[in-house]
Specification:
The protein is of the alpha/beta class. The protein contains seven helices and 13 strands. It has a domain of 208 residues: Spore Coat Polysaccharide Biosynthesis Protein SpsA, Chain A (Alpha-Beta Complex).
């Protein structure tokens, strides 16, 4: 039996509040393709063998009709579901809580659907084809039992919106390109002076270099990572499970694993422009960029 091809896990359960709708299913390409379609196309070309979509149960029929049917014969697919009540034994949803538990909890739902090493992406982010190839190369050459994972780091200036401030995970790496820390900042934007600045969790203003690497939630993990993720989620629930809006994000688990000293994360740098729709005004910018790529022959139209 040959080596298992890497799996692409797509975080598609969320709905963009600032955007004002479900960004995952918005037509962005010249033939009404979604951003997710382009990511899957790039993943197939990079050698991924399966796509696992993490969605809410009410999205099942829509996902089947809009994505799974057209991918039949192109790549193996599977739907898994994130719901509030899907918790480890001994834990219950606190009365009144409606908000999902976050990306870390969502990823846990994919454990049984992922056969080997895997990558994780946001459904509504355009990462560019080179990121998928670099991640596939890493996953294909890393042992499933390894505690070395990966993160695609984009240059901060390549991820900003012209229509308002954004939240980004600011990365710090050592001189061997291993991740030291990911720290969330918000309201990041280019100021009239040209300087890029934002606020940390203490509401302090921080300035950043143009090429400072940021996480756009494109992770690569070995199969064994699920055990660490589940253990960290149990710790999170003991500490914050009673709160109404606390969320368990993937970087929280990764940072915890790195602090324990048994895990390291290799930075895979990208110089490509990242595109996403934080605000509804971002949509025509993304559409114009995808049309430019199609016109240049980077993608067919229609895509499938």
């Amino acid at each position: 039996m040959g080596k298992i091809k890497p799996t692409l896990v797509v975080l598609a359960a969320g709905v963009g509040s600032r955007f004002g709708g479900n960004k995952q299913t918005e037509g962005m390409g010249p033939s009404n393709e979604t951003i997710m379609d382009y990511s899957i196309f790039d993943a197939i070309n990079a050698g991924f063998g399966k796509v696992v979509f993490i969605v809410r149960e009410h999205m099942k029929q829509m996902m089947q009709e809009q994505f799974l049917n057209q991918l039949a014969g192109k790549i193996e697919t599977e739907l898994v579901y994130q719901e509030l009540q899907y918790l480890p034994k001994g834990f219950n949803v606190p009365d009144g809580r409606e908000k999902p538990w976050g990306t870390g909890h969502a990823l846990m739902m994919a454990k049984e659907a992922v056969p080997g090493n895997f990558a994780v992406i946001n459904a509504d982010d355009f990462y560019a084809s080179s990121s998928f190839q670099n991640m596939a190369d890493f996953l294909n050459t890393t042992d499933e039992a390894s505690k070395v994972h990966a993160l695609v780091g984009f240059e901060l200036a390549q991820t900003l919106s012209e229509n308002g401030g954004v939240s980004r995970g600011i990365c710090t790496a050592d001189n061997q390109d291993f991740l030291i820390d990911v720290e969330e900042h918000h309201k990041i934007e280019r100021q009239p002076s040209g300087v890029i600045s934002g606020l940390n969790d203490r509401e302090e203003v921080k300035e950043f270099e143009e090429k400072r690497p940021v996480s756009m939630n494109f992770w690569g993990f070995t199969k064994g990572y699920f055990e660490d993720l589940e253990a960290d989620f149990v710790s999170f629930l003991k500490d914050k499970g009673h709160e109404m809006k606390s969320e368990f994000y993937i970087p929280l688990s990764v940072n915890a694993a790195m602090k324990r000293g048994d895990t390291s994360v290799k930075m895979l740098y990208s110089a490509d422009r990242w595109y996403g729709v934080t605000y509804k005004e971002d949509k025509p910018v993304v559409q114009a960029y995808l049309k430019k790529l199609v016109d240049a022959g980077k993608y067919p139209s229609p895509l499938w």
